Amino acid sequence: MTPRFRLGFLTHVQGRGKDLRQIYRNAQELFVVADELGFDVGWVAQHHVALGGGGLPSPWTFLAHAAARTRRIRLATAITVLPLEDPIRLAEDVSVVDTLSGGRVEIGVGSGGSEVEYAAFGRDVARKRELTTTGLDVLRKALANEEVGTAGFTIQPPAADFTGRIWQGVFSKPGAGHAAEAGSNLLLNRAAYGYEEPTDEVQRPWADAYSSAWNRPHAPRIGLSRFIFPAADRRTALAQIADDVHRAALRFGERGAFPSNVDIDEALRRFHSFYGHPDEIIEELRRERVLPVATDLITQFNPAVPEQDAAIRALELIATEIAPALGWRAAELQGA
């Protein structure tokens, strides 16, 4: 029986304290654990400045190390901030990691939006959509082993077939249509910023618009990122996530993405959070409006930064209790 969706996890490579070596080691350990649990895809997010969002500026270096420590899990970005990259150099990095990993790479790209990051790299944030579109066109050509940059130049190592392995993160219905027109898989964020309605109510029309606009011969993929943190009960879960989620919501309020001065309950709602006992999360996910049309469920703990033991236990509960109840099977069992 074919599983209904692929299961992934996303880390923003964050931690408490100043021991960055331990933070990076912990994030690598999550890839190893997820690989052993049968997760299909491990994702990392790129952040050049922390801004309370993440601690990894060089995702392909990180994923190369993860490739050496894992056996079968696919390795992906959600997202690489494309306007801040040279798309030809990016294609080279992607192809190198894909070669090292035995063809396990997928790449998610997007425009980002941090004015500080754009300024640091000498890019105009007002042109982020244009830069994303033009950069993606070059990236696609490079990964298709077409000439890029100058006559006679193609990347090395030559890329394998990346049809179906390029994703775009979007934040609107028109953006979903553009992703379909470009032939990209669709990445939907854990939260819909700037809307009062629940995230899944906002995003389901985006997913439907994407599917309607798709006109490529291969099947599209829809990746659904969701904040999912299982524990023994809701109180135990809240002890690990509440303060971080509330602080993050207040920061988002300062930037206008959320209302200002939200309380913790509203912060959890705005981040479309699933937390507590696995049985509670399963019932809530069964009511999720986008999940029925998703091909990939991408679980994450961000903006919370749980203790490492709690994070590992959460991955275990997702893989052994929550995802199987929703129709997923671990990779080792596929085809059995």
Short description:
With 336 residues, the protein is of the alpha/beta class.
What would you note in describing this structure?
- The model has no long low-confidence stretch (mean pLDDT 95).
- β2, α2 and β3 form a beta-alpha-beta unit.
- With 336 residues, the protein is α/β, with parallel strands linked by helices.
- α3 crosses α5 and α8 packs across α9.
- The chain is globular.
- The chain is built from eleven helices and nine strands.
- An eight-stranded parallel beta barrel has the order 1-2-3-4-5-6-7-9, surrounded by eight helices.
- Helices cover 43% and strands 15% of the residues.
- It has a single domain, classed as TIM Barrel (Alpha-Beta Barrel), CATH 3.20.20.30.
CATH class term:
Alpha Beta
The CATH architecture comes to: Alpha-Beta Barrel
- N-to-C terminal Cα separation, in Å? 8 Å
Low-pLDDT runs = none
CATH superfamily membership, which one? Answer: Luciferase-like domain
What is the string of SSEs from the N terminus onward?
EHEHEHEHHEHEHEHHEHEH
Structural class: alpha/beta
The total of beta strands comes to: 9
Main sheet: strands, sense, barrel: 8 strands, parallel, barrel
Q: What is the total domain count?
A: 1
**Strand order of the biggest β-sheet:** 1-2-3-4-5-6-7-9
Strand content: 5-15%
Enumerate how many helices there are, as a single number. Answer: 11
Shape: globular
In CATH, the topology is named TIM Barrel
